Amino acid sequence: MELWYTEKQTENFGITAKVKQTLHTEQTEFQRLDMLETEEFGNMLTLDGMVMTTEKDEFVYHEMVAHVPLFTHPNPKHVLVVGGGDGGVLREIVKHPEVEKATLVDIDGKVIEYSKKYLPTISSAFDHSKVEVKVGDGFMHIAESRDAYDVIMVDSTEPVGPAVKLFEKGFYEGISKALKEDGLFIAQTDNPWFKADLIAQVFKDVKEIFPITKLYTANVPTYPSGLWTFTIGSKKYDPLDVPEERFHDIETKYYTKEIHKASFVLPKFVGDIIK
Questions:
Q1: Which spans of this chain does the record mark as coiled coil (predicted)?
Q2: Looking at the whole model, is its pTM more than 0.90?
């Protein structure tokens, strides 16, 4: 007998993977959590039936969330991650010597707990000396923060369940207040094939708040359509105007200084979404 996992990405399309075994399944206080061992992608974390990360392709997403903003900002001492309970973004953040403190706020402590157990290569930075982990509501943490962070990264699920409010204009306004006067933020903003309206709305909202707003993309095979977008809002620094000397060597598998710039070159249909 074969066991297959399928994520129904739309009513008419899905992605499927052969499963070796179910490692853990639980209805947490906030969502359905499953850890699966798959044949093709290694261990896989799903929340409410949606793929969050896999051992095989996680590096693309986590590197592009972290390194684009951290190389854009000239001195990112204090960094906040909203969500990101698997720890992958933290792992990339602590590679930057300029970072003095990285705070992670995730609403579901169970994601952190089981990522440590079943995704050790992704969650390796939770005990790093620069890292502070808080189990709590990221939306409220933002609302209660003022001039606190140089860079904020919103590593949320898709806009369902507890993550819905992380895609609202009021949240981005709160981020602006939580950032220092030259701060910037980045948020994952889903895919252009199935969620064009979401990307357009988020981009419009962010552009009304931040003087520099840009969209960039990366290829993440296990995410809907494989083409993923990220929206960056910056008070001062342009991600396409980073001095060459600011790029320093770090260990990556996807991100390079050339990819940094190239990721902002959008396919025409994606560019049309945010016009």
A1: none
A2: yes
